[in-house]
Every structure is written in C-alpha cells, then in structure tokens.
Amino acid sequence: MSLRARLLWTLGLTLTLLWGVTAVWLLRDLHQQVEHTLDQRLAQSARMVAGLVSQLPDDVWQQAEHRRLSIPAIKGLACQVNSPSGEIIAQTHADLDGVLTPRQTGHSYRTEDGVKWRVFTYQHDDLTITTADRVEERNILLTDVLMAATVPFLFALTGSLAALWLGILRGLHPLSRLKQALAQRHPEALAPIEIPDLPAELRPLVATLNALLGRVQQAFVREQRFTNDAAHELRTPLTAIKTHLQVASRQHGEASRFALTQAEKGVSRLQGTLEQLLMLARLENGLDDAWQTHCLARSAAMDALLMLGEEAQVTFTITWPDETLYLPAPHELVVTALRNLLENAHRFSPDPGSVQVSFNQSGSGLAIEIRDQGPGVSDQDLPRLAERFWRHGTGHGSGLGLAIVSAIAERFSGRLSFAHNTPHGLVAQLWFPLVEERHRAEQPDVAWGTPVAPH
Fold first, then answer.
1. What is the number of domains present in the chain?
2. Do residues 226 and 335 share a domain?
C-alpha cells in the first residue's frame, strides 16, 4: 500500500470514527433534551390549565355539574379536568377516556386504538388535570430536529474528508517531485539533488541522500585514482623486469646473473609499491574491524624500529616516551607510520646517531619528532613532501611512504608536518591526540617485540 493510500485510510477512518462517535453522542443528548423539553411543555400545559380553571367563577362549576365544559383542541395535544369526585368537568377529546382517565400523577405512556400517547397527570386544589401528547407527533418533531442537526454534520464530514484528501495530495507533492527528480537522473549522475522549496521534514532526507551520493562519488574517485596510480607506477618496474629477464635469457655467466639480480630488485620494488598502494586503499576505504582501536606509543615505536633491522638502528638516538601513553589508532598503522618516517630519515641521514627521535607530550597530545642531518629540501618543496608519488630529486622509493603517514594521521585526528632542521636536514613531526584515562582499560594488551636499547 502506498504512503498516500495509507494516510488516506488511516486519517480518513480515524476522522470518520471520531466524528461518528461525537455525532452519536450529540444526537443522543439532543434526543434526550427534546424529550425532556416536550415533557416540560406537557407539564406546563397542565399547570396552565390548572391556573385558568382556578380563576373561573363558582357559577361556572355549578353549571358544569349538569354538563361538561368543552376546551378547544390542539392538534396532537389532549386535556381533561376531573373534579374531586372523579367527574369530568372539562375536556378536549371525548373519545380518549382510556388515555385521559386520571391515574398516578406524573408522566406515563398510554395506548388507545393503537395510538401511543405521552400522558401527564397533575393535581391542583382537589382538581385533577390530565394532558397528553401523541407520540407520533413527538417522533415527527424529533426526526425534524435530528435531520436539521445531521445534514450539517454529514456536509462537514464530507468536506473534511475532501479537504483531507486534497491536503494529503498537496502535502505529498514534494515526495512526487523528489521521485520524479530521481527517476529523471542519469544512472551515473552523482551530483547533489537540488529541489527548491522542500518542506522541513524532507530536507534531512535529501541532505542524507546527497551525503550518500558524495561518499559514493568519493569512492569512485578513490577507485579511479587507485587504478590510475597503479597503472602509472607499475608500468615502469614491469618494463624493467621484462627487459632484465630478456637480457638474462640471451646472456650467460656474469651478465645473466646481473640481469636476474636487477629483475629481482624490480620485483621487490614492485611488491613494495603494491603494498603501499593497498595500504592507501585500506585507509581511504575503511579500516579492518579486527584492528584494535588503541595502542601504546612506546611499543609501536619499538616495533617500528625492529622492522628496520640492526644495521639501521644505530642511526637513531631515541628519547623514549612514558610507558602509559596511548594513541587512538591501531598498533599496526602507528607502526607503519613510524617505520616510514624512520626509514625516510635513515635513507638521507645514515650516519650513526645522526637522527634524533623524541616523544614530547603537550596537553592532550603526543608529538613524535624525527630530526635528521640529511640534505633537506627547499622552501618550495617542503609543502610537497606528503604528496603522492612526489620524490625529492632522483630519490628511490615509490613516493607513497609519507603520503601514507599523512593519511594515517588524518584518519585518527592527527597531523603530519615538516620543518627545516638547523643547520641542515629535516624535522618531521607526527602528532596524535592521547587517549583519555577512562578509555585505556578497554584496550587489551598485545604481544610486543623485544625492546631495542636506545643509542
């Protein structure tokens, strides 16, 4: 069932039910009030007759002992006056003895020749006055009153249902416009939906839909960029590997072994580039649920240093951080970020003790600074260090290491910045916010590598 039909049925039935219950209630009350009014009129007629009779002279009653007085009849209304002895001294209808004969006082129903009457008996100064209404006349009057009340009600109900139908059609028109706008869009169109004069209730829906389209567009852009990057970066090492293998197949001895060695190096470079591209794709498309959300800064730094090997470890002079400083990022990603920074510093500053690594806690964050004594970069190249595939000079590598570090930092509300070292070299600073104390108990410990003594 459509939303329009559901609203029409629900609101229409509810409105009809409420109006119906109210109408039955009002008509029932109106019926009782009309009956009460007619009874009061009947009683008032009896009292009026009693008042008139009490004002008649005595000779009238002496004359009435010999013959009955005749009271002018009113259509549907009968009256009779009885003396204390029970004799009829005045009446409107001589043929209604069964109806007008005095009995108990008050209101009652009586039937004469199949005609039902409403009777009221009243006693005043030893006189008994009986008045009667024909029930049929009452019913006609009551029917007219109820019809006068029912017709406007039915008109109002019909008008309300029509207004409800038109209101729902008009109220759901923005949904129809949204449906039409979506139906007319190209399947590959990812631009935001723009529909003017939308009601406030639909704006969050359109905003959420536009946000979803934006995320889908970003996913397509990332996929296209990944494809372009892979095609661009893998073409050169694949060509080199193919060339070295062709040379090795045609040569013998030392020349063949040299070609195979170069091909193996090309394979290693190709593997490293693929790993870097896949890491960027994972960072941009979402994290692995199996990764833990917090890690110890000291343990991540130790594991990153272990991955470089003993030959590279002598390059660093490290001021180790506090044991209890937690970073809001998975251990694997922090290790990857630190390994890339340390490896980059070692590549340009390989002398023992030439790279200083410090962990500085300031407020709610931890800044990891890596100072090398390499050649550094110019002021123009400093902002480009974290760009994809940008290499300083003719440096080796895929040009993705620092881009991955920047992506990891941004993913977890951190940042990567660079500055010139004095007198020469480069300072890379990786900053992360620290995990609050109340969240640290939620982070389980993991098995770390063997700590490396600082040099």
1. 3
2. no
* Rounded Cα gap, residues 380 and 403, in angstroms: 18
Alpha carbon distances (Å) from 174 to 164, 183, 307 = 17, 14, 60
* SS3 assignment, position 2: coil
- Tokens representing 357? 């690594």
Query: Could you say which of 118, 151, 184 is where a domain stops?
Result: 151
Same domain, 272 and 336: no
- pTM of the entire predicted model: 0.47
pLDDT score for 450: 38
CATH number of the domain to which 316 belongs: 3.30.565.10
Same domain, 32 and 100: yes
Say whether both 299 and 428 belong to one domain.
Answer: yes
Note the pLDDT of residue 452.
Answer: 42
Write the CB contacts of 276 (distance below 8 Å, at least 6 apart in sequence): 398, 400, 401, 404
- State the pLDDT at residue 281: 64
Residue 224 and residue 309 in one domain:
no
* pLDDT at position 438: 46
- 50 lies in the same domain as 100: yes
Instruction: Please state whether the peptide bond connecting residue 423 to the residue before it is cis, i.e. omega within 30 degrees of 0.
Output: yes
Closest of 272, 324, 284, 297 to residue 430, by C-alpha: 297
CA dist., res. 244 & res. 264, Å (int): 9
Report residues of the chain scoring pLDDT below 70: 1, 56-74, 222-237, 269-270, 272-292, 388-399, 437-455
How far is the C-alpha of 106 from the C-alpha of 108, rounded, in Å? Answer: 7
Measure the CA–CA gap between 350 and 45, rounded to whole angstroms. Answer: 125
Shared-domain flag, residues 78 and 120: yes
Average pLDDT, the chain: 78
Is the separation of the CB atoms in 306 and 413 below 8 Å?
no
Read off the DSSP letter of residue 382. G
pLDDT confidence of residue 370: 92
Query: What is the rounded distance in angstroms from the CA atom of residue 289 to the CA atom of residue 367?
Result: 27
- Residue 47 and residue 361: Cα distance in Å, rounded? 105
Verify that 13 and 115 share a domain, yes or no: yes
**Closest-CA residue to 49 (of 106, 123, 103):** 123
The pLDDT of residue 453 is: 38
Residue 318 structural domain: 295-433
pLDDT for res 357: 92
